[in-house]
Amino acid sequence: MTPERRVGVLGGGALGLAAALRLAEAGRRVTLIEREPQLGGLAAGFSVGPNYLEKFYHHIFRTDTTIIAFIGELGLEARLLWGQRNTSTLSQGRIVSLGSIPDLLRLPLLPPAERFRFLLGMAVLKAIPDEKVFTGWTAARWMPRLMGRRVYDVMWEPVLRGKFGARADQIAMSWLWSRVHERSLRLGYLRGGFQLLYEAFGERIRSLGGTVLTGTSAARIVRRDGSTEVHTDSGEVHVFDQLLATLPTRLFVRLAPDLPTDFVERYPGPEHYGAHVLILGLDRPLVPGVYWLNINDRDMPFLALVEHTNFLPASDYGGLHLVYLGNYLPMDHPLFAQSDEQVLNSYLAAVRRVRGDLEPSWVQRHWVFRAPFAQPIVTTSYLDSLPPHRTPLPGVYLANMAHVYPQDRGQNYSLRLGERMARMMLADSQLP
Questions:
Q1: Which contiguous run of DSSP H or E holds residue 376?
Q2: For position 1, what pLDDT does the model report?
Q3: Cα(371)–Cα(348) distance, rounded to whole angstroms?
């Protein structure tokens, strides 16, 4: 009788959970280890009123077929809501709607000829089937050729600068192509919070005989006697025939001292920015009718204002109107060291430029969340530093958010990669 193969998964985000579920379904004895007290990774939520709210804003698109399929598979399809919510931009102090084709046809930020070139350029990006045509090109070089310098300076440069700061001119065109090509105007949200999906993953894995450990950190990965040991911070040792690490590459390298030096030097993994968000719980709407507000005015301290309760009703959250003020920043940026109160006070002063009559008394609750390794810096040499999934340690695999290239982050692509890693591991385990 063939012994049951023991498989470990480090990380309980979308990628790790999808892989763990498919491996458990294939009869593997799965143990998933997650550092945080709850599953979900960057899509994890916290309780606001009777429901969950994500710590960092999330929605999905009609094109996100993998997560839509998982939502149905795990019995949550009735909670999936769709809508075409307004997207606008704050440019030169005024809010301009970008939410529909008619809005773009009368876009006041551009003269008529350049509006047409902008729309034509968007159609071209939608029509290009893959990223290979952009090899070696930055967005800063390609986009002015496609849409013209003025369109780039008004519509695209502020987006790149807001998200990547000083690295904006180095961002690969493949990254920007993916954002245009893969997204739809209709947005989806799981009513009650995406945390429900990740809890359902955990329950299904357990029902298949798997073990899901939360609040447990991996401290060391060691190869011994033909197996892989994961030592945890509590002193436990888990022994596996195969191990999938879904951690950022730089963290994985620190945990695995047996990795060859030439591998570590050859594949440092791409650089990342961290995520920083302030969530306001207000007693009234902030920007009525606008769900997503891009901040193109660069003297503002955040890059996006997302009024979640212009998508979901405030009654879902005990009557609070919920607004995200989000940023991606270098992980040594001073903002990460500021207290929650310092962040609140500085941001409220900026929000008054969007809503001049804002009073501090409107703020009933507020939360600040910070996360490292949240946004890969996708340069034209990005793939050179990206390690292969099969590491030099036998039976040890690495897959993380950086590997979803050319797509950018997103629950859908992480879930898809998790399924792919499960197939790879299952195929490898059948080899003689």
A1: strand 363-376
A2: 36
A3: 22
335-348 in b/e form (b: 16+ CB < 10 A) is bbebeeeebbeebb
Task: Give the residue from 256, 271, 196 showing the smallest Cα distance to 8.
Answer: 256
**The two structure tokens encoding residue 137:** 């090109």
Say which residues have a Cβ less than 8 Å from residue 123's Cβ, sequence separation at least 6.
Answer: none
- Please, which residues bridge with residue 372 across strands? none
Residue 133: both structure tokens together: 């045509």
Structure tokens at 291: 């769900």
Residue with tokens 């986009």: 143
> What is the average pLDDT across 71-89?
95
Mean pLDDT of the chain: 94
- Cα 195 to Cα 55, 58, 171, 245, distances in angstroms: 10, 11, 31, 21
Q: What is the pLDDT of residues 205-262, one digit of tens each?
A: 999 999 999 999 999 999 999 999 999 999 999 999 999 999 999 999 999 999 999 9
Per-residue HEC secondary structure of 219-250 comes to EEEEEECCEEEEEECCCCEEEECEEEECCCHH
By DSSP bridging, strand 237-240 and strand 227-232 are antiparallel
Nearby residues of 141 by Cβ (< 8 Å), 6 or more positions away: 173
- Taking Cα atoms as reference points, which of 166, 159, 145 lies closest to residue 109? 159
pLDDT in tens, 194-213: 999 999 999 999 999 999 99
Asked whether the CA dihedral 213, 218, 223, 229 is positive or negative, the reply is negative
User: What percent of the chain has pLDDT above 90?
Assistant: 88
CB atoms within 10 A of CB 209: 12
Pairing mode of beta strands 29-33, 6-10: parallel
Q: From edge to edge, which strands make up the β-sheet containing 227-232?
A: 218-224, 227-232, 237-240
